[in-house]
Amino acid sequence: MELSDLYLALFISFFKIGLFGFGGGYAMLPLIQREVVDLHGWISVSDFTDIVAISQTTPGPIAFNSATYIGYTAVTEMGFAQGYGVLGSAVCTFAVSIPSLVIMTIVCAFFFRLKSNPWMQASLSVLKPAIIGLIASAALLLMNGYNFVDYKSWIIFVAVLVASLKKADPILLIVLSGVAGLLLYPA
Amino acid sequence: MFFKIGAFTFGGGYAMIPLIRNEVVKKKLWLDDDEFMDMLAIAQSMPGPISLNTALFVGNKRLGFKGSLFSGAGIILPSFIVILLIAVVFTRFKENPVIERIFKGIRPAVVALIAAPLLGLGKSAGVNLKNIWIPLVVALSVWLLNISPVYVILAAILLGTSHYLFVKQKTKK
Known about the structure:
- By secondary structure, chain A is mainly α.
- Chain A has helices at residues 3-20, 29-39, 45-57, 62-77, 82-114, 118-142, 151-165, 170-184.
- Chain B has helices spanning 2-8, 13-27, 33-45, 50-93, 97-115, 118-124, 133-143, 149-172.
């Protein structure tokens, strides 16, 4: 694949993610996963899960984090030099931001009319519950044989789920489950 | 200013909101509380990351289009730099068996962290017995039927607006 074709494909994918990524964060995951794992195969589903883990423990929105990470990885995995990978990161991050920039500029011009617009309210009455469904599917899509290798995985899953419902700090939980991985899976 | 918010908000979107509010409303007095809440509602109902939308909105209100370019760049750059460094390092150490063992433990935790807030989020999104079929249908169609979230979003908008149109027609008669 030509480098320019790859940049174009990355741009289109992340533009789409920015444009249809309603609900922010986790609600965008199924869309990102579909584009970068299923359609283009730029990264594996385990790598994708690792990116989500990195996003949960580093600053910044998941959409940017995955754009930056995947832009670099997709280009370097194809055998191109690191400098081109950095450019790939920039392309993806730029692409995922453009829809927001355009839409928010328009919104700012019409702000006070849009707020009480009945069409807007009507769309949101279905979009909001739909976004909850998207987040649920994000979890379900990642509940696969690559991420859940044996019963120990399920023990970690249940433990973290319970701790998280009890408002434990997510970063601490990730660190602890990393330690658990080291202990539970001997070399 | 948004560089600071971008650099210190771990865990994405919702974690950023109190920080942004503190800076924009309390320290800089760029917006009052009501404006901030309205703005948040808009940022959440538009596509794209919520923090970026918020930053763009505040930037635009202050300095117009140019302002939104600056605030947008401010919120993007910190995570861009951090993740780029991680990507460079991580692609080299991925095959390392110790790293692989650590991530074997982390992966199920990631899924749990996505699933845990669902109940609370569902409540605040106004999910009740009457409309619980919407998230259920969405989750199943994306998960099992492999339907693109793009179509799901479009269908949701179409359904919401056509329902509104239908109700409006009925009340006219």
